[in-house]
Amino acid sequence: MYGDTANKLALDAKRFQNLPSIPIYQADLVRDIVKEINDLNKDSEYLQTTRDKLQEQNEQGEEEGENGVLAENQKINECQIFVTHLSMRRNKRCLLAYEKVRSDKLVEYAWLNIDPMDNSLQSSTTAADGEGSDTASNTTASTSAAKSSTNSGTSSSKLIPNYTTQLDMNNLNHFEQDFYKNYQDLTMSYKSKFGEYLDLMGDLEPPTDIFIDVRCLKDGGDVTTEYGSFNLIKDSQFYVRKSDVERLIQQGYLEQI
Question: What InterPro entries does the record point to (predicted)?
């Protein structure tokens, strides 16, 4: 039935709308929907041609007093045209909704200012830290596991609620990759105009506390702030000003307790 394929695409868009990552592009479904739209368009053109013929026959039938059957055929034809156009419109709306959801997630990710390649590196580090031990054999095993995790494109970096924090460029089609790169260039150019006076990457939610407790999720080196410096060592905890560590929280180095 017309619209079933578009319904699958809409359900897929709804499924990953609240996920922190962007799944692979459904190229086959999109191709089938476009083909269906083209077929419906051909049917619509044929039905419109039939409508014109019925209209001419109806005008001739009025002169001869025989328009009962023709009027019934005209109603059927009009109903067919209406359903055909409605199916095309629904397919187009599902396609646009799917593309809009994916583009919104790309925009969201671009504003976090995280390099897509960092995700695989973070997952490798997390896997190595989780599986590492004091023995050399376990260290070798964790390193190989980290490499396989990187090759598979998976990411276990810290997730931020309601944000898109994971991006695999292989899941995007060619046009989405170009869109993301161009949009990222635009955002960087726009942010550079404000310099250090205004941080456009800050959290949109107003803070409830100026200072917060945070836990370090992985090693990250020394961090210098207005109130001093601290070293990012895994599992260590700090009481710091939220504005100083917002970027570290976004990048998965810290989590708020």
Answer: GINS_A, GINS_bundle-like_dom_sf, GINS_Psf1, PSF1_C
